[in-house]
Amino acid sequence: MRALLLAVLLLAPAALAAPELDALLPRPASGSAGEFVRLANHAEEPAPLEGWALASGRRALALHGEVPAHGTWALARDADAYQAETGALPDAVVPLLPLADDGGSLALTGPDARDEVAWGPMGMGMTLTRAANGTWTERHVGWTEAAALAFRADVAPFTRHDALPTVLAALASARRVVEVEVYELTSLDLSAALAAAAARGVQVRILVEGAPVGGLPEGEVARLDGLAAAGAEVRTIGGSGQDRYSTVHAKFAVIDDALAIVGSENWGSTGYAPDGRGNRGWGALVRGPALAGFLADVWAQDADVVRADVRAWLGRTGEPLEAPPPGALPAFVAADLTALLAPDSAAPAILALPARATRTLAVEYLQLPLAWPQGPSPLVQALRDAAARGVQVRILLDGQDLDNAATAANLTAQAAARGWSLEVRTTEFRVHNKGMLVDASLALVSSVNGGEASMLRNREAALLVEGPAVRTYAQAFEEDWSDAAPAEAQALSPLVAAPPLFVLAALAVLRSRRS
Which secondary-structure segment (H or E) carries 24? Predict the structure, then answer.
């Protein structure tokens, strides 16, 4: 973790508004023209900038204007470069002081006040951003900063058995707009349903990962061409050299500001199998404006064509897509829900889930590596801690992932040696889930794998569900558990302690990529 040297903002005791440093970008992906500094004002009145200056070494830049009340003020070297980096225009274009890539310091000085930040070598496209508690963290310039959203709404849970008919019914109900953000869109049935919505006048807007592992498959190209030919607005994100996220790995959709879909599965024929025999995964259809509005805002920011990593799909003439007949919407039940995003809010919330278990913990994951690049996996450590305090822990992992084999063997050996009620099973069938059940009363429905990239650098979407709907996921887990074989214990060295959860906010951004 890079050490960031901070200085506390020292202000004379006064009621007058004063600016402070809020964010800076020393090493833009677009070159030095993209450098910027952002100031903030947390007071009730505007903060005048006359008499204030930015200083670095012996150089200083006098400031003019004002920072609005409870607002920010961005100073950029170049307006176009700033817009490409952030999706917005700066408040002022100035001959900005150089911000060193390999480390430096910047001070904001004014009447009887000084605010300063220093940094070490910076990753490309990474900002220093000040959190509400005054600490500085590294975040990519284009990342959203959405807090977890807690709300109550009606939810229709689904698993592989009813995934396709549930989503088809939701898409068939659209009358105004459908927005989809997914890693992969290869399902003929779902593509056809989207094309049918566009044909009846619905505004259909699609955002897919533009640089998936192995490249866009030929089948997906055909689906996107068909959607574009039907009148849908298709965009890709990623593969630009100025990408905001390691991978856009989320799987969500918004329908008419009234319905939202969040799940673990890609929109393909295995995630949404016509016969219900596809991947083991979970999803949720949520009715109400809270989640729909939340995810619509995410889509708008991620899919903004002003961003350097977003491209409009220049599709060829696609083949006609024939939609399957939709069924009726499923039954809904009331639930307490929490919406989470990565890299915004998901990691701390997910890593804290095992600590909430008092009796049982059930985990079903596509990928659960023992270690992150910085050290032992904090998620695996949290599962160990739960077992150590007497919680019954069952972990079901996809058997095709080699990392999972090592995790299963290690945890099985530790459970046997320490007398924990912990069992790990790996599968011969495909587990694509990223789910968790806490005391059979809270479920995690998500696209977030257990590795560092998914938690901290991908765009992911997750939902915590509390209430009677959890029974659907619990039943699916029990079915999958009974179909899987126990893992064999091996004599592996135990894991060392993982870093505490609060360290996650300041983890260095590494270069490895994994979806």
Answer: strand 20-25
Q: Please tell me whether residue 504 adopts helix, strand or coil conformation.
A: helix
pLDDT digits (tens, 9 = 90+) for 214-269: 899 889 999 999 999 999 999 999 998 889 999 999 999 999 999 999 999 999 99
Print burial letters for 291-300: b (CB count within 10 Å at least 16), e (below 16). Answer: bbebbbebbe
* Three-class secondary structure of residue 403 per DSSP: helix
* Local structure of residue 416 (DSSP, 8 states): H
Paired strand residues for 371: 376
Q: Regarding predicted confidence, which is higher, 87 or 502? A: 87
φ, ψ at 195 (rounded to 5°): -65, -40
pLDDT at 315 over 90: no
Interatomic CA distance for residues 329 and 191, integer angstroms? 19
pTM for this predicted structure = 0.86
- Whether the pLDDT of residue 62 is over 70: the answer is yes
**Which residue do the tokens 């915004």 mark?**
344
Handedness of CA 226, 228, 229, 230 (dihedral sign): positive
Q: Which two tokens stand for residue 458?
A: 């991908």
DSSP 8-state code for residue 123: -
Are residues 9 and 40 in contact, defined by beta-carbon separation less than 8 angstroms?
no
Four-CA torsion 149, 152, 153, 154, nearest 10 degrees: 130
CA atoms within 13 A on the CB side of 299: 28
Q: Which residues lie below 8 Å from residue 54, measured CB to CB, with a gap of 6+?
A: 37, 60, 61, 63, 75, 96, 97, 106, 107, 108, 109
- What is the Cα–Cα distance from 242 to 255, expressed in whole angstroms? 30
Contact 164, 274 (CB under 8 A): yes
Determine the pLDDT at residue 494. 43
Nearest to 349 by CA among 466, 460, 444: 444
Write out pLDDT tens, residues 346-402.
999 999 999 999 999 999 999 999 999 989 999 999 999 999 999 999 999 999 998
Q: Scanning the structure block, which residue is given the tokens 């270690």?
A: 371
Alpha carbon distance 266, 167 (integer Å): 12
Cβ proximity of 140 and 155 under 8 Å: no
